[in-house]
Amino acid sequence: MVRLRTVLVFLVLFKSFGSIIAEGEEQIEQFSEALLLRPLPDRKVLAHFHFESKVPPTRTHGSHHHLFPKSIYQLVHKFRVREMELSFTQGRWNYGRWGGYDSISSRNAKPPGVELWATFDVPQHQVDASWRNLTHALSGLFCASINFLESSTAYSSPKWSFKSFAANIRYGTLPREAVCTENLTPWLKLLPCRDKAGLSALMDRPSIYRGFYHSQRLHLVSNEFDLAAATSGMVLEQTLTVVLQPITLGSGMTSSVGSIQQPSWSLSSLFGREVSGRCVLSNASNVYVQLEPNLVSELKTTSETQHQSDVENLISQAWSDMSFELSDSPVRIIKEVYGFQESSLLYEFSLANFSDSRPFDLEFRWKRPVTWSSQLAPLQASRFLMGSGNERGAIAISLKSVGRSGYAESSVNKEGRCSFQVDVFQVVPWYVKVYYHTLKVFLDERLHNLADVIERTNVSPSEDKVSPGLMEIALRLPCDVHSVILTLEFDKGFLHIDEYPPDANQGFDIPSALIRFPEIKTKMHLFEDKSACKSPILSKLQEESPVLWYTEVLLVPLTTPDFSMPYNVITITCTVFALYFGSLLNALRRRVEEEERLLKSKATKASGPIGVLLSKLSAKLRGKPLEPPPSSLASKVSYKLILRVILVAGIAAAWQYFFG
């Protein structure tokens, strides 16, 4: 009986121990890395690095981590951050050439400078304090001027532009923040292997910063304070998007029609380095080469005597004898399936079989000239200033159709009319006093009533030296619209002399406006493959995201004082006071009697005994007593010195009266 009880207890313990191990395997830290390469139509290459770190909740996993960065973990718990996105961008994304209707551009095309938004799990009255503390922490963590966003004049509270009707959200941007390697180095330190191994070793600083566009992004989602989400903890997504001009490998080629061949490239020609294997701490380390849908369509249509069987071979093989070739054979080829439209292709390469003795250096070589264009957003947006002078002006936002109405075919109302929604988000500094009642909307160059076009608005007028102006507008536009223009009038304010930046004559920045298409979403439609779920970058590309478009940063000239005038006033005032007090102190501290005796002794020594005898003899002959040598100093003190002191005092009193 005792032996039977012992066996039963052992079985129960073994079962519970096995369940604990299984649960521990599910709740374990994960890290993955991926690189997506895409040829662009304008002879450039897009390189998109994607790193993702996951950690289970603290209540089940504890506060000690092996892979997740401790600084981010402490930041989330100290300021109770629910979601945050921070980006450092140099250059501007070219929506017309690099595309605006894909997952990469919708998520990673950011405005120039620094952009930060965050939501907090704190009461409403503590949101501003948490935001200020968060900006200071991020400023020290990434060696940037993010702490300038702590002022109430630098951040706003949008409602639906970033998170739908989130009450505890704050948004701020610094358009003029310079991005350099001292911002990238702390960003790389958040990775488990840093830049010593894996795909992050490709991030050669000169190669990255010579690109036409560079954006490093950090997106954090935390469910630490949500008791309902018991299985998910924190997810940290780090992306680096770079547009590079490849160094041509081999000689160029020109077709008979004059089109220039795309430049061939490799990893070593783009980044100056090769990949020596994966990061040993990563669960997945893959490299993808993506061909855009328009490029795939162009390759199919320009192929000579191309049949359906050959098209299938192109999809299943490595295009070895067609328009280009790859130096390594891919592990698999992923085809996008999206109805009857053209789909993109993904060539996947795994770094598991590469090491220091056999580095990975993928080469992409073109065989013939190919021209294509990227997929564009339904409307191309631009923003500019109108008016002249330093008193008033106007902001204009222009939206022009690209000639494709298929984006909004599903947006049909009850009356059978096709329409789609466009959200406009814009923040202006307090010294640009926008009159929101002057808003005008022109559809196809015709003025329309605002009630017929605008669905909802969220306007927060600016307050001098307290808060910026915020405008959120939801427009309902017909599908056949060709052009939309929004205009707003404003007055230019005046700043105190202490509020001007060092380069005030350059102008003042108005941050980029955000154009959002909430009903027009983009994602990649891949085959339902279980292995695809293991790759975070593929899972991210398959998530729906609305099409976004950031406009240009506007440069507004304000009335600027002549900063040389205070310099001249300070200089002449200091000169006058120096002359006045110098002369006064010289007259008060000078000892006249001692100087006279010193001059007499010097005169006696200079004349000598013969001179003294001649002076006495001359005095006797004239019948007059011997006179001492005249003291020029005494006369100078008695007349000229007093006159100078009076003159300087009069000048100082007159200057103080007229200019003080």
From TrEMBL:
GO cellular component, one term: GPI-anchor transamidase complex
A Gene Ontology biological process term: attachment of GPI anchor to protein
Signal peptide: 1-22
Protein's organism: Anisodus tanguticus
Keywords tagged on the record: Membrane, Signal, Transmembrane, Transmembrane helix
Transmembrane segments: 567-588, 641-659
Protein name (record): GPI transamidase component PIG-T
